[in-house]
Specification:
The chain has 413 residues and is α/β, with parallel strands linked by helices. Helices cover 25% and strands 17% of the residues. The strands form 3 sheets. A 6-stranded parallel sheet has the order 7-8-6-10-12-14, with helices on both faces. The chain has a 4-stranded antiparallel sheet with strand order 2-3-1-4, with helices on one face. The protein has a 4-stranded antiparallel sheet with strand order 9-5-11-13, with no helix packed on it. Helix 12 packs parallel to helix 13.
Length: 413
């Protein structure tokens, strides 16, 4: 670990003894490298340095695994994670740069692809990330940004398994990759009970002590710096108007009033406090959702030191709420759309308390590509490795893989 005068550590005001306590931060090469070579205005640099200091507390995100040890949460059975699960009758396909596919059609004009489309009864070819048209590329993001703009959901009616459809479409010369779409599960979405906090509960939050967060707060809080650190809760939505969350809610400066317009031209109407992919209604982006997202947001950054409810681990960072649930259910269908939205709209840390297994012998290029792009955009993805409490040597667990920071569970009381 390096601590020298003029380094990001020194500029952030962190002493050498303190820096050495957090030697694991040197394992965040892209974040540290970006800070060392940052040549932006002083205000922007200060925020990024505060993000780096704040990363000392990314242990706060241990809640995505820690929940398994709490009496409030039920454990998820091992059987649910023994093999990959795929969304039915849909695959994701990336085309090469030479062609142009009209959004929403059932044919591409590529003869080999269209013959297979007829065989599988394809009824819609839909762009996966149309909002990326509103994101300006730079030298770090150009390649993956351009590639994901050419990525489509291919929806079909036949009963053929998605992995077999993907294998067939992958043979088409103009296809870069074709992959099944992973089905992701919220961790601890089966709540035994949920109690909205109505009195100070800090003494009950033993995990804060286990993670030594009170000591971290002596060094930095989420409210330090201007603007504040933004944590995106990419989850099943949540009660962002909760009395212990509202004070920390993120507000989109470019679209701060619900008026039926996309005021900031980012591809979303009225995404005032976040976005809602789960309702499949582009005109309604109220991210309100289930109790899992509310709890995740509360553990991350409930309003702290206000005499109400619980203490948030981040001590008053801003919360961007991103609803990525499947319509009408507790599963996750739009996780990677939500991750990209968060990065494109300024989130510093992106929390994902969900995931799904993929065999290591056939890793998914699409998911890794999204995570790589988001990292290059400057965000830190923190993902749960699951609550099943066992090693899965033959499985990769997305998004707790690739360039994301993976957090494991604990049964420490």
């Amino acid at each position: 670990m390096s601590w020298v005068r003029g380094s990001a550590w020194a500029k952030a005001g962190i002493s050498e003894p303190t820096a050495r306590k957090y030697v694991w931060l040197d394992k965040l090469p892209k974040l540290d490298r970006r800070l060392r070579k940052q040549a932006a205005p002083e205000t922007y640099l200060n925020k990024r340095l505060n993000v780096m200091k704040f990363t000392i507390q990314t242990s706060l995100m241990l809640f995505v695994g820690m929940m398994a040890s709490s009496s409030v949460w039920s454990q998820v059975g091992d059987t649910e994670y023994s093999a990959p699960a795929w969304q039915p009758q849909v695959v994701i396909v990336q085309f090469d740069a030479d062609g142009y596919i009209v959004d929403g059609v059932a044919k591409t004009g590529v003869q080999a692809f269209d013959r297979l489309a007829i065989q599988y009864s394809v009824w819609q070819i839909q762009r996966a990330y149309p909002f990326l048209d509103h994101v300006q590329p730079n030298s770090n993001t150009y390649r993956n940004l351009a590639a994901l703009r050419r990525t489509y959901y291919v929806r079909y009616q036949s009963t053929t398994e998605p992995q077999h459809v993907a294998t067939g479409l992958q043979q088409v010369e103009e296809v870069v990759y074709a992959e099944p779409v992973a089905l992701n599960r919220l961790f601890d979405s089966d709540l035994k009970r949920h109690v909205d906090p109505d009195d100070p509960r800090f003494s009950d939050q033993k995990y804060l002590q286990h993670m030594r967060l009170p000591e971290a707060w002596d060094e930095v809080k989420g409210m330090d710096g201007s603007p504040r650190v933004v944590i995106a809760i990419v989850d099943g939505g949540g009660d962002w108007q909760h009395e212990d969350l509202l004070g920390n809610v993120w507000t989109n400066a470019g679209d701060s009033v619900a008026n039926g317009l996309d005021d900031d031209n980012n591809g979303f109407i009225d995404d005032v406090h976040g976005v809602n992919f789960g309702n499949e209604d582009p005109a309604n982006n109220d991210p309100t959702g289930d109790t899992h997202g509310t709890s995740s947001a509360g553990v991350a950054s409930a309003v702290t030191d206000n005499g109400i409810g619980v203490a948030g681990a981040a001590w008053n960072a801003e919360l961007m709420h991103v609803n990525v649930a499947c319509p009408g259910g507790s599963l996750i269908c739009y996780g990677y759309e939500g991750i990209l939205y968060a990065a494109a709209n300024g989130a510093d840390i992106i929390n994902t308390s969900w995931g799904g297994p993929v065999t290591r012998s056939t890793p998914l290029r699409h998911q890794s590509q999204v995570l790589e792009l988001v990292t290059d955009m400057g965000a830190l993805v923190v993902a749960s490795s699951g609550n099943h409490g066992r090693l899965a040597d033959s499985l990769a667990f997305y998004p707790a893989y690739s360039s994301a920071r993976s957090v494991c569970w604990s049964n420490r009381g």
